[in-house]
Amino acid sequence: MRKRSRFKRLLIGVVVAGVLVAAGFLALAWKPAIAPIDPPAAASFPADLVARGAVLAGAGNCASCHTVKGGADFAGGLPLATGFGTIYSSNITPDPDTGIGRWSEAAFARALHEGVARDGSHLFPAFPFDHFTKVTDEDLTALYAYLMTQKPVQAAQKPSTLPFPLNIRLLQAGWKLLFLHEGVYQPDPTKTAEWNRGAYLAEGLGHCGACHTPRNALGAERSGNAYGGATIDGWIAPALTAANPSPAPWTQDELFAYLRSGASVLHGTAAGSMSEVVHDGLARLPDPDIRAIAAYFADIDQAGARAADTETAIAKAAAASARNIAQLSDPDAHLYITACASCHYSGAAMPLAVRPDLSLNSALSLDEPTNFVKVVLSGISLKDGMPGVMMPGFAHSFSDAEIARLAAYLRATRTELPAWTDLETKVAAIRQETPAP
């Protein structure tokens, strides 16, 4: 009898503790709705504020995620594949019914700083509020002005394919407890103003870590491996740290050239979603902001300590390129010369921007051939890479075996890194996932 009474008290204690924990979580997770407003007239926003917001929207690359290919700007609906299911981006035009037309500036700021929608529901972390929380109120005001002056588009939110219980928005409060560190960017007093400006843009609106930082099992960026490289949209977003395997260091000048024009003489050309970042987003930023971002990442990848590597890399590239002439009897060398050398061989001592030297190309130095194969299959369009320069895709003219031979040949003759394995199988898999050019 005494044992039963003790068990009963223990059970009641467990239940009460559970209720208290649940009540505490609910109290923490619940967020009130912010009252809707009548959509403000576009003319109510000062032109200079709207113009500054346009630049900031470019820095955040907002259009890329919130616009479906061929669709209306910022109307949402773009599928964002995650490890848990597909989430569709939201409509951020000022449409009063399906967009943010009835959102006050306070509601807009809460969404970016805390990841909470106007109606009080938690946003999924596919929306990078863990970065946007670093954006200043002044910049959010400008960004709000810009978005509220765009053309309203009626486009209802598509439901995600997240399974239960991951589709319960209230549970995102738990994710935030673990991984969201709210607060505007705080300058590092040991760094220069340029470095801090670059850090603010990269860590905040630019949310560079969202693509370049590997994620943990819960989909959060691994805090101990910031910019350590990750896979995104079928591409490898290389490490932006000293772990980057490129033969030449990413100096501030090289980073500036790449982020400004879409190409770096010593590294290659932007492709995939990075091309959108450069040509559709960063293109709006002034040169000093691009240089600031470049200064920040050149410091992170310790380019200064590797400066001597540049001359060595260039000399090796020239020697490797010249070896092709002596290898005409090699069928793989012949494949390269007939398909690639007319554009990639220069014979000059210094690399030329219009004839990218593949010995210096970052794609050949990565652990996996993904980026190299995708470019060979799809090419580089005129809008993606360096202005006025394009590369045709070889998806229709090269078999999987030929692309595998080309990749193996260039990896062996242009780098000192281990051979890629299972190349033909990987080429076939990448071809299946890559839209035909």
From TrEMBL:
Binding site for heme c 2: C208, C211, H212
Cytochrome c domain: residues covered: 48-151, 193-301, 327-414
Gene Ontology CC annotations of this record: plasma membrane
Positions bound to heme c 1: C62, C65, H66
Cofactor binding comment, as recorded: Binds 3 heme c groups covalently per subunit.
PROSITE patterns xrefs: CYTC (PS51007)
Cofactor: heme c
Keywords of this entry: Cell membrane, Heme, Iron, Membrane, Metal-binding, Repeat, Signal
InterPro entries the UniProt entry points to: Cyt_c-like_dom, Cyt_c-like_dom_sf, Cytochrome_c-type_DH, Membr-bd_ADH_cyt_c
GO molecular function: electron transfer activity; heme binding; iron ion binding; oxidoreductase activity, acting on CH-OH group of donors
Tagged with keyword Transcription: no
Subcellular compartments: Cell membrane
Residues reported to bind heme c 3: C340, C343, H344
The keyword Disulfide bond is annotated on this UniProt entry: no
PANTHER family: ALCOHOL DEHYDROGENASE CYTOCHROME C SUBUNIT (PTHR35008:SF8), BLL4482 PROTEIN-RELATED (PTHR35008)
Protein's recorded name: Cytochrome c
